[in-house]
């Protein structure tokens, strides 16, 4: 017989947490299996936010294993199925990660498209706002739009604050390249 909703929700959370622990411990195969199970459990509950959270984590797990195409496919429902009620914050995060991976691959045209789309999704509430500005600065630097790159890097640093992060590193790298 099916579990009561509260027990089923607890099981999905437990699966996600165990997968996160496996990912942190470097057991990427266990993390992969755990996140897929958590997604299945969340989907059975119509828990779109829970499914999205596990889907994002699963994509990171795949990316860390060097499976970029699979990571992209893992994010696809968040990005390419607007009729599904995934939370906006999850869609923004998925798009920010896709853009970050595109930067790493130096896929400039895809990066430009992802950043345009992310900009359109980012209103007042946008967790990856600093990352967006930092990635835009990287793209502007590549396109030799140095004043734009400098302004975007400063914006990213202002939004990111003083905490060490990849976002800050990107922005500081842009500033260093401009100074050269």
Defining key terms:
single chain, 180 residues, 9 helices, mainly alpha
Topology of helices and strands:
Layout: H1 5-24, H2 28-44, H3 48-64, H4 68-80, H5 88-104, H6 108-121, H7 129-142, H8 146-160, H9 166-179
Q: Which radius of gyration do the C-alpha atoms yield?
A: 18 Å
Count of distinct strands: 0
- Mean residue pLDDT: 90
Order of helices and strands: HHHHHHHHH
Judging from the principal axes of the Cα atoms, what is the shape? elongated
Structural class: mainly alpha
Low-confidence stretches: none
**Number of helices, counting only DSSP H or I runs of 4 residues or more:** 9
Determine the N-to-C terminus distance: 66 Å
Strand coverage percent = under 5%
* Proportion of helical residues: over 70%
How many strands, which pairing sense, and closed or not: the largest β-sheet? none
Task: Provide structural commentary.
The protein has 180 residues and is an all-alpha fold. 78% of the residues lie in helices and 0% in strands. It has helices at residues 5-24, 28-44, 48-64, 68-80, 88-104, 108-121, 129-142, 146-160, 166-179. α1 packs antiparallel against α2 and α6 (108-121) runs antiparallel to α7. The radius of gyration is 18 Å and the shape is elongated. It starts with a helix and ends with a helix. The model has no long low-confidence stretch (mean pLDDT 90).
